């Protein structure tokens, strides 16, 4: 686990999940998941491909519906919200997609303006420009504003995807495999950015990954999905201090010192 951060408040829960289940036909992906996310922390969810990591994050983001269980986000019970209330809540949750999900026909600036002008119609042009410039500066890519996504590297697209999520100032950030498909040096840059976002914006984040370097660098707390449930949780070192072959083999295969 990283050095203790003063802005993390483990007495305040911003997201709480109890008894979450999700199946696809006869394939039971999540089998009674319980999870808490605390204010200001980076929580890493580890697991092999197909263990339900992305399903979990899509349920939290409202992109999939759970079969059973309760989800409480920012003191709101999601299942009891009206469609309008649910839309308002979703604006407080930022989802950084694995593929960055940028619009190829828009410049970087237009990609960042789109969610802002769509959801906050009272902003002046000067205010929109200020917000765009601010998040571009935050992710270290102020010089790319007029570029098209096709002109960016994979790491730059990841950063712009994070910037587009940050522009609505979410309370909770959801990162889906933020280092997938990137070279090791670029991965380190993305991991550092996740920590910088946490420190600057005091976001509470769930980071879905199978990249153990990402988990070790970003996670204040780590949980591991095993057979549809969280079998291990704690610091990075605590999670892997076990003789459980399912965990040891995951470490041995993926982690490089």
Descriptive notes:
The protein has a domain at 99-169. β9 and β10 form a beta hairpin. The protein contains 9 helices and 10 strands. α3 (108-119) runs parallel beside α5, α4 packs across α5 (154-166) and α6 runs parallel beside α7. With 257 residues, it is α/β, with parallel strands linked by helices. It has helices spanning 53-60, 83-90, 108-119, 125-138, 154-166, 184-201, 212-218, 236-240, 245-254; strands at residues 9-24, 27-39, 42-46, 68-73, 76-77, 93-96, 172-176, 204-209, 221-226, 229-234. It is globular.
Give a concise summary.
The chain has 257 residues and is α/β, with parallel strands linked by helices.
- Count up the helices: 9
Which word captures the global form? Answer: globular
| Structural class estimated from helices and strands | alpha/beta
Lateral arrangement of strands in the main beta sheet: 6-7-8-3-9-10
Please bin the fraction of helical residues: 25-40%
What ranges have pLDDT less than 50 throughout 5 or more consecutive residues?
A: none
Per DSSP, what share of the residues sits in E-state strands of 2 or more residues? 25-35%
Q: Spell the H/E element sequence.
A: EEEHEEHEHHHEHEHEEHH
Number of strands: 10
Q: Largest sheet, described in full?
A: 6 strands, mixed
Q: What does the oligomeric state look like here?
A: single chain
């Amino acid at each position: 686990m990283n050095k203790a951060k003063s802005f993390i408040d483990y007495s305040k829960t911003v997201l709480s999940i109890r008894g979450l289940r999700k199946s696809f036909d006869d394939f039971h992906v999540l089998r009674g998941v319980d999870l808490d996310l605390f204010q200001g922390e980076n929580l890493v969810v580890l697991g092999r491909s197909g263990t339900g990591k992305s399903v979990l994050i899509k349920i939290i983001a409202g992109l999939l519906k759970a079969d059973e269980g309760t989800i409480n986000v920012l003191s709101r019970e999601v299942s009891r919200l009206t469609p309008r209330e649910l839309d308002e809540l979703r604006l407080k949750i930022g989802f950084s997609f694995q593929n960055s999900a940028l619009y190829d026909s828009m410049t970087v600036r237009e990609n960042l303006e789109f969610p802002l002008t769509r959801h906050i119609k009272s902003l002046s042009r000067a205010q929109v420009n200020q917000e765009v410039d601010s998040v571009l500066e935050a992710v270290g890519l102020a010089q790319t504003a007029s570029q098209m996504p096709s002109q960016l590297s994979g790491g730059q697209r990841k950063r712009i995807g994070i910037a587009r999520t940050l522009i609505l100032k979410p309370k909770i950030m959801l990162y889906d495999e933020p280092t997938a498909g990137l070279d090791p040096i670029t991965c380190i840059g993305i991991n550092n950015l996740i920590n910088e976002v946490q420190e600057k914006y005091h976001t509470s984040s769930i980071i879905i990954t199978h990249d153990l370097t990402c988990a070790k660098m970003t996670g204040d707390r780590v949980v591991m999905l095993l057979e549809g449930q969280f079998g291990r949780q704690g610091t990075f070192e605590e999670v892997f201090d076990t003789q459980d072959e399912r965990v040891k083999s995951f470490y041995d295969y993926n982690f490089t010192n």
